[in-house]
Amino acid sequence: MIPFSPPRIDQEIIDEVIDTLQSGWITTGPKTLKFENELSNYCGNPATVCVSAATPGIQLLLSWMGIGEGDEVIIPAYTYCATANVVVHSGAKLVMVDVNEADFNINVQKIKEAITENTKIIMPVDIAGLPCDYKEIYSLINSAEVKSLFKPRNEIQKKLGRIAVVSDSAHSIGAVYHGKRAGSLADVSVFSFHAVKNLSTAEGGAIALNMPEPFDNEALRKKLKTMSLHGQSKDAFSKMQLGAWRYDVVESGFKCNMTDIQASMGLVELARYEGNLARRKEIMTRYTEAFSAYSWAKTPVFEKANKTGSFHLYLFRINGISETERDLIIQEISERQVAVNVHYLPIPMLTAFKENFPIAEFPQTYANYACEISLPVYFTLTNEQIDRVTKTVIESVEKIIQTK
């Protein structure tokens, strides 16, 4: 079996984790701080907060911004459920819009149609690691028409003076848009370091802060760090210094800090990340070249003018098939010992959301999903395995479409 996306756990990772275990400090400590600083240096944003996962990272941010009942947050219908769940838990109104045909990313015209005076956040999702159209999004929210609608409900929203852009960058660390890396493209970007991501800490995430003046991103970093530790004024590492046990709880916070065990994996992964990206690009390019001879094949966009993705997912589509036929093709591929996936089952097709968000209202989302198959992409995938995946996909597709 060729697996879909195994984590890259090699001796370098193992040695760094063992070093952390032997250091006597395994929760949030010096390696987490080092990882945060190196992430900021890599992404080009002023400050970063590492957390236990991307989802609580976004929840922290929404809480800090005072997002709640009466507010609206716009997200794409084509994303993982986490993007929607954080909005639901905040108490704000969830607003979904359709996506682009070509790149699966949020459609800016649909955003414009969905904005009201209650819109406080637009949350674009860099699907498969390709950055959304941030210049167009910022042009929209800074337009006189949209700014005149904006009604702040608290001092933070008033200070910003416009709709905030919070990027769900779970897929896109290392991606580049108009010369800037993901993490410095939105007011705030939140990365995921889950086991299947390009850069993994097993579980984990990071909040990349890039708030405009007059916000102080370093002060905000300290604020979010405190919020991630139940609102406690000192982390455990600080409390363990001689005579420094005394602490306070300054607010009712959350518990979603990253550990040094996770950070030790991240430090290794980040140090070699450019090589990882280069290999992932090679894999995707090899797939695209192999499928280019077939009229039924629709290969994904992972690079274009002013955009370079992180090569996270190869969102392969098959022209002219139904959702049922797609599922039959996946079954055929799986029986030939190749693991593939689908990214994603659209949010309006999930039981928790379908009643309020009928999939018929998002035709492009459904069209993209119904014929999509995600192919394996990871650093240790060999050229021989790539060729086997390609051959298996071609034979499986042609077997199913010939029976139509």
Task: Describe the largest sheet.
Answer: 7 strands, mixed
The low-confidence parts are none
Estimated structural class: alpha/beta
If you average the pLDDT, what whole number results?
A: 96
How would the blueprint of this fold be written?
Layout: H1 11-23, H2 30-43, E1 47-51, H3 54-64, E2 72-76, H4 81-90, E3 93-97, H5 108-114, E4 119-122, H6 134-141, H7 144-149, H8 155-160, E5 164-168, E6 176-177, E7 180-181, E8 188-192, E9 205-209, H9 217-227, H10 236-239, H11 260-271, H12 273-291, E10 297-298, E11 303-304, E12 307-308, E13 314-318, H13 323-335, H14 363-370, E14 372-375, H15 383-401
Parallel strand pairs: 2-3, 2-4, 4-5, 5-8
Antiparallel strand pairs: 1-9, 6-7, 6-12, 8-9, 10-13, 11-12, 13-14
Helix pairs in contact: 1-11, 2-11, 3-4, 12-15, 13-15
Report on this model:
It is a single chain. It contains 15 helices and 14 strands. The longest helix is centred in the last third of the chain and has 19 residues, at 273-291. It has helices at 11-23, 30-43, 54-64, 81-90, 108-114, 134-141, 144-149, 155-160, 217-227, 236-239, 260-271, 273-291, 323-335, 363-370, 383-401; strands at 47-51, 72-76, 93-97, 119-122, 164-168, 176-177, 180-181, 188-192, 205-209, 297-298, 303-304, 307-308, 314-318, 372-375. The strands form three sheets. Strands 1-9-8-5-4-2-3 form a seven-stranded mixed beta sheet, sandwiched between helices. Strands 7-6-12-11 form a four-stranded antiparallel beta sheet, with no helix packed on it. A three-stranded antiparallel beta sheet has the order 10-13-14. Strand 6 (176-177) and strand 7 form a beta hairpin. It is α/β, with parallel strands linked by helices and 404 residues long. The two termini are 28 Å apart. The protein has two domains: 11-271, 3-Layer(aba) Sandwich (Aspartate Aminotransferase, domain 2), CATH 3.40.640; 273-401, Alpha-Beta Complex (Aspartate Aminotransferase, domain 1), CATH 3.90.1150.10. Helix 3 packs parallel to helix 4 (81-90). The model has no long low-confidence stretch (mean pLDDT 96).
